[in-house]
Amino acid sequence: MERKKNISMAVIKRLPKYHRYLRELLKNDVDRISSKELGEKIGFTASQIRQDLNCFGDFGQQGYGYNVKELLNEISGILGLSKEYKMIIVGAGNIGQAIANYTNFEKLAFNLAGIFDINPKLIGLKIRDVEVIDIDGLVAFLKETPIDIGVICVSKNNAQTVADMMVTNGVKGIWNFAPVDLEVPEEIIVENVHLSESLLTLSCLMNDRTYP
Amino acid sequence: MERKKNISMAVIKRLPKYHRYLRELLKNDVDRISSKELGEKIGFTASQIRQDLNCFGDFGQQGYGYNVKELLNEISGILGLSKEYKMIIVGAGNIGQAIANYTNFEKLAFNLAGIFDINPKLIGLKIRDVEVIDIDGLVAFLKETPIDIGVICVSKNNAQTVADMMVTNGVKGIWNFAPVDLEVPEEIIVENVHLSESLLTLSCLMNDRTYP
Predict the structure, then answer these.
(1) Domain B9-78: which CATH class?
(2) Is B12–A85 a contact, with Cβ atoms under 8 angstroms apart?
(3) What are the sequence ranges of the domains in chain A?
(4) A136-150 per-position pLDDT tens digit
(5) ipTM of the predicted structure?
(6) Where is the CoA-binding domain (chains A, B) (predicted)?
């Protein structure tokens, strides 16, 4: 399948939403859907949907619409879900535990291989059969078990140190929940979930209704 | 101060990041900063910074740069932080507890007024002096205590019902952690934190290095 290069970040950010809606449609035994119907469900215009999906190849047929299963498969592939990912979580506080407990991720190809913390009270705790290990064992663990994704759920003061340990030991992608921008080599992908920034976006929009 | 209308969502989404960096600068006693220096810190170009901040009025002086305190004050105002917000959390699982425990929010003007859950094991639990209340008491609570922001940390199947209860009882903004798009009246602001979508963005970028 031919894909255009230089896909914008905005399109990439919309793909997981397509993925979510298409899974829902498939679960409800919907075989095919037009860009108009899909747009109404997702809240995008039909033309935006056609434009987005065209970036990745020639989906959909005039007058027929999209084959839901086929489109879902294609988008799953683009999202990297044809592979499996081994994931560790560093920081077993509330956020770390929330992620460890979220079984939906495993359905999507992300397998939790380890959880680490510095707090003696949390070490030994079992979260869905995965035991929280002392952070002192992190490097040895990474040397033994190749890990694709490291989830950082520690405080902002410790996040960079943890990121460095991950990167030095083969982690390729970092999902960062600490409120700090990490410095990593260019080839490492970082996806941030900055909760405070999300909350401030909410208050910003609540405060001035002239914004979009 | 004169503000342009039709500020793009992209600019709004960048403001909390400016806010975070400016707070850090002020904490480190930095009085003024050029758009170039600020850009290097944040990872934006100087011209993007000037363009972003110009949307909201005429900050900064040629040859002097930005007065950090003044700029922080302005951005705080734009982000709605000159007000205080009363917030409730519905769903006292890991995510709900993480948010309740995150003291940084209160420093920013968001005050936790109540936490609700359906699970008898959680009801009565105290998180930072706020007791988890039975969800059956939510409507009565909202009628008595005007709440600005409702945080939804329940499962996707219950999220819409909770949103409806909130909206009917005066909540103006919803911070939604459930993996579902809520239907609300136009005047209600919803900010979503869709964790699965964030993780899929990560795997997408890890999977094909030709993307941005």
Answers:
(1) mainly alpha
(2) no
(3) 9-78, 85-197
(4) 999 999 999 999 999
(5) 0.92
(6) 80-181
